[in-house]
Specification:
The structure is a single chain. With 211 residues, the chain is an alpha/beta fold. The protein has helices at 12-23, 55-61, 85-100, 122-147, 186-199, and strands at 3-7, 27-32, 45-49, 67-70, 104-108, 152-158, 160-162, 171-173, 183-185, 205-210. The protein has one domain: NAD(P)-binding Rossmann-like Domain (Rossmann fold). It has an eight-stranded mixed beta sheet, with helices on both faces. The longest helix has 26 residues, at 122-147. Residues 8-197 form the NAD(P)-binding domain.
């Protein structure tokens, strides 16, 4: 049994990661500003209300955990303005983990972040940049900060996210020449994240996930 901290745990991939980790028998500290709204019931679940850019909240949340899954998201309405959540939260998390001696970090970003942007075709890249450009510029900074750390990190870049149950048929594209976009269930991304903290083979590597 591991003790996991999931940041961004109230919805999306974060919530699916909480569910997957609990189903696997792990203890989970579910960190979110609205953690009290998480409607799951499990003796191994701890709801932790906090702000991902608050250093005191993050330091407290790291106490006693073995690994961290960072699965932050921003509302669609915030994509039209400046986006700083991903980099600001990571600039708090990374030194806090180093200080606390928590080494394992699985960070969910997205296809199009970092060097995976080069794998996008021109027709896909233009509308992508128009809608998600500010967020992914910030994810670039997030990934760069993680890469510069001494942590045992994995960068997880899912393609187009869908709802529904895990399929277990997702593909892990670990070579830049194989990177491409594609659809994948949030539950499958969560399953991969939990597999990685359990003893994954992609430490200090970036991968693209598609269905």
């Amino acid at each position: 049994m591991l003790h996991l901290l999931v940041i961004g745990a109230s919805q999306g991939i974060g919530l699916e990661t909480v569910k997957t980790a609990l189903a696997a028998g792990h203890r989970v500290r579910a960190f979110a500003r609205s953690a009290e709204r998480i409607s799951l019931s499990d003796e191994n679940l701890e709801r932790f209300t906090g702000n991902a850019v608050n250093a005191s909240d993050i330091a407290a949340a790291l106490e006693g955990v073995d690994a961290v899954v960072q699965a932050l998201g921003v509302p669609v309405r915030d994509l039209l303005g400046p986006v700083r959540l991903f980099s600001d939260a990571t600039n708090v998390l990374v030194p806090a983990m180093e200080k606390a001696g928590v080494r394992r970090l699985v960070a969910v970003t997205g296809f199009g972040a970092g060097d995976s942007r080069e794998a996008m075709g021109t027709l896909q890249r233009l509308p992508f940049r128009l809608v998600f450009g500010r967020a992914y510029d910030d994810k670039d900074v997030q990934e760069m900060r993680i890469r510069k750390s001494d942590l045992d990190w994995t960068l997880v870049r899912p393609g187009i996210l869908t709802n529904g149950a895990a399929t277990d048929r997702f593909q892990v594209l670990d070579e830049p020449s194989s990177w491409r976009n594609g659809m994948i269930a949030r539950a499958d991304v969560a399953k991969f994240a939990v597999q990685q903290v359990e003893g994954g083979s992609y430490v200090r590597r970036a991968v693209v996930l598609v269905g």
